[in-house]
Fold each of these.
Amino acid sequence: MKKFDIRNIRFRKVTIDEIDDRMLLVNLYATQAVTFIIGLIWIFFQHRNPFFMYLFPVNSIFLLWGLGLALLVIAVDLLVSRFVPEEAGDDGGVNERIFKSRPVWHIVLLSFIVAVCEETLFRGAIQHNIGPYWTSIVFAAIHVRYLRHWIPTGLVFSISYALGWIYIQTGTLWAPILAHFVIDMVMGLVIRFRREE
């Protein structure tokens, strides 16, 4: 029997074109599951009950905050994409690969899963410890595919800060979850139905 030697493990950079659709989805769902689990564990170690964060709010003011922020972000993003060269906002083709040929129901599902998982970790857990500013820096750094260009990095940081701000204003995680969900869903649908030029 051959012995396993950890020194024989080699890592190499993989481009998005080298990953098939199935592996791309496996990676997406796996990273979101890890994100969610880390968020729940972090909240648990803060001596808070993570399930109280998911209690649906009594009043509906969070809808205004969440939808208002989502509409503002979508408007700014569409303006930026209209006036800024496409290569300045390039994410390496990841979003195109994720959303371009996906059915609408799957775009909605992906957007919801990403919103719940990321907001649990970033707003629910990390922001509780280090505040919205530093959480937004971590959030922008985690979205590594945008770090090559300052415009998308700045947008991701600003959106994250705004998500943290509406969480503080409303006191419910559902406001940033709703905003994150609507932003991702609408932008995914824009990519899905965009006409080729």
Amino acid sequence: MQPATRGADEEWFENESFWEDFYPVLFPDELFEQAQEEMEKIIDLIDHPVHSVLDLCCGPGRFAGLLAREGYQVTGVDKSPFLLKIAKREYADTGEIEWVLSDMREFVRQESYDLVLNLYTSFGYFKDPAEDLLVLKNIALSLRSGGSFVIEVMGKEVIAKDFEEFLTTKTEDGLFIQNHEILDNWNRIRSEWTLIRNGNIRSFTFEHSLYGASDLIRLCEMAGFTDIQAFGDFDGSPYDQGATLLIITGKKP
């Protein structure tokens, strides 16, 4: 087995080997195929005109690229050079898009966007909640007055409802194994992923913060947002026992 190595001061998401090794299970083809429908539903959740969009933690650009092709002015921001390289390649024919290599704790464009997206559980990477609050404050700074944000995460309640400590999934050319451990009174989750492909074994361990709906709503209020709502899917269903995701929306006053 070859565990992905990281520097002493390197945070897990800064390790490019994680994104490279686990790209096939993180971003399978079906994830791109469903992006068009999800994008349309996201826009339907917003009750005001949208012209400019910031996709914060855009990854390989599955939403940013589609939005640009629909005519929106789009900025896609990610900290992974590997993922941005894929985004640039896949959407090279798209004009109204800017790709930016940056950390979401640092990226700010004052009052530049009508909508900010942070999707696919890209929120909660940091152990200190103050850094998650900083990200929300940066989003507020980058939004125009009256603009909205949409955050999608796997809510704490959703995970707790169907929690499985050990998961094994067959892939086209191997096996994907996940071990999960709940930490800090359900505030954090530690995951050990192992991918077996073509006789090669890659392993990576990382941690992520868990947010329930009330936790994330409170954090958004601290960042100055109003009209904050929680939904259980992209259709705008209630965040209740039937929820499959946690979608949080809100506005900058």
Amino acid sequence: MSKLINWKNNWFSGNFQLFVAGAQKGMITFSTWRSDAESMFEDKNYQFVNEGFWQSRTKVIDRKTNELVAIITYDSWKSKAVISLSSGEQYEWRSTGIWKTQFTVSNYKDVHIMYSASSNSGAISADTGSELLIITGLFIKQIYNKRAAVLVACFIPLITVSINRH
């Protein structure tokens, strides 16, 4: 049976609220100056800690046990990431829509989570009860959104300078 979760996103902070049947059941809160985050969904609580240049890896830590439960590795050239669980299982996060409004987390066997997004809200359809995978999919979305914003912020001054020269 598929689980349906709705979410809302605060565009300025990047924080998410997650709702099941209209009741808030979780959230993701991002650090102010970094892309690290704390999350809670139903009875699970995770911390996301980014590492490396351009934050090429993220460690996911279970806050109740303080154990490393997953590592996320990002593909810098594509909207794609690999979620490697401590159990050895691997899942792929990939953007599927041309406007980056749809994305999935899947192992291409028995777990498939579909996300759809509008400007500041969306829905999740999951055929798994894994809170970790559901939360991780939204976290990765926000990491790629922040990367796109940084690229735009870097190119605007260059475009402005080149326009003003002519």
